[in-house]
Design goal:
By secondary structure, the chain is an alpha+beta fold. It contains 13 helices and 16 strands. α1 packs parallel to α6.
């Protein structure tokens, strides 16, 4: 007699195959027409009727309905300068990535499936290779127009969109230093935002795991890849800077100091959307995703600060720039450290206890409002008191 298969196991297999098919179709459709508006393909809002219709062709209706009930299709972000909240819709590819994280009673097994990891890596590599081709230049202007980024090109070292050899070169475009001045440049006790980003800030790691990083399996030792470093930062503060695909995609030094160590940690390519980070009972993606940990010995205090560049869904690579990965190199606050190539990504900054008092508005938004704050490179995040 053949072994029986439970309904949940059967549905998990069905859901996985459907989700994988949806992701493959989204990326294939995107790459088949570089000149198309990205908000009609890869970055189509997940709450749009067209997106819903597309996904429903692949994912069973009852599964789709249950997930839509459980999870929002976007999140609010607070503008630091005005204090106003704005809604950001989840893009269709992130939404499909969320389906790879949740499979009802079988969700924990699904997260560890080698097939899931292989699929996400395969798609990230595929997108990276395609966006390195000369043909991908055709995607640049539609991307700029779709996200209303035309005026931002005046801030770039290469302001002409046609001067880029491929979409990936454009995606990791370099900004002029004067376009992102650091707050209070003469005061080295100030800490700065490491990126143009949606930022959350927590005075303690415990607060970060209570209010934001709720996935199981998170620990400083896993995040940093070092028990010794985990002891240094135990009880310290954490800043999480999430870069959406439309953001300037380089990260910068939050403090001045000497590069002490760099550790590259292989991993997966899960989405880092807040919905994936905030949901308890899911795998913590920060400790699972591909990342690079840079430790900086801060000039002003002699303390160590960890800057973790975390790859995410469809991110092709994480690269340091201009030789900043040289051990012993002096870097200054606001200096560009590296670039992410296509996709969303995150930079996490961890401070040891007493090293920074984070700005109250950022902490309030993160803890009380449970919202990210829209930030730019160099803006103040706190200070050593």
């Amino acid at each position: 007699m053949a072994p029986t298969t439970s309904v949940s196991e059967h549905m998990t297999e069905e859901n996985y195959n459907a989700t994988a098919s949806a992701l493959l179709n989204i990326t294939d459709e995107t790459l088949s027409n570089h000149a198309a508006d990205p908000k009609t393909t890869l970055h189509a809002p997940a709450d749009h009727n067209t997106s819903h219709g597309f996904i429903s062709k692949f994912i069973p209706h009852h599964v789709l309905t249950s997930l839509e009930t459980k999870f929002h299709l976007g999140n609010y972000v607070i503008d630091r300068q005005t204090g106003e909240k704005s809604w950001e819709s989840m893009s269709i590819y992130v939404r499909v990535g969320m389906h790879l994280l949740y499979y009802g009673s079988e969700q924990e097994k699904a997260l560890h499936w080698k097939r899931t990891l292989a699929l996400l890596q395969e798609e990230s590599v595929k997108m990276g290779k395609e966006y390195d081709t000369p043909e991908s230049k055709a995607h640049i202007r539609p991307f700029l127009e779709s996200f209303h980024l035309e005026s931002s090109m005046a801030e770039m070292v290469k302001p002409d969109p046609d001067s880029y050899s491929c979409f990936n070169e454009f995606f990791a475009r370099e900004i002029r230093p004067d376009a992102r001045p650091v707050a209070e440049p003469e005061n080295e006790l100030i800490t700065s935002s490491p990126a143009d980003c949606r930022l959350t800030a927590f005075p303690t790691i415990d607060m970060a795991t209570k209010y934001w990083v709720k996935g199981y399996g998170f620990s400083l030792e896993k995040l940093l890849g070092s028990a010794e470093l985990a002891n240094v930062f135990d009880g310290g503060s954490m800043v999480i800077a999430r870069l959406a695909p439309q953001d300037y995609h380089r990260w910068h030094a939050p403090v001045s100091g000497v590069v002490e160590k760099i550790t590259d940690i292989p991993g997966a390519y899960y989405t880092v959307n807040p919905q994936a980070i905030n949901e308890s009972g899911t795998l913590d993606v920060f400790c699972e995703n591909k990342r690079s940990v840079m430790t900086i010995r801060r000039t002003a205090t002699g303390s160590r600060v960890a800057v973790i560049a975390v790859g995410a869904m469809l991110v092709g690579s994480i690269k340091y720039v201009n030789g900043v990965d040289e051990i012993g190199l002096q870097v200054h606050r606001g200096q560009c450290l590296g670039a992410f190539y296509y996709g969303g990504s995150t930079v996490i900054v961890v401070y040891p206890p007493g090293e920074v008092t984070l700005d109250q508005d950022l902490v309030h938004n993160s803890v009380e409002e449970k919202c990210e704050t829209q930030m730019k490179v160099g803006w103040r995040t706190g200070a050593k008191m």
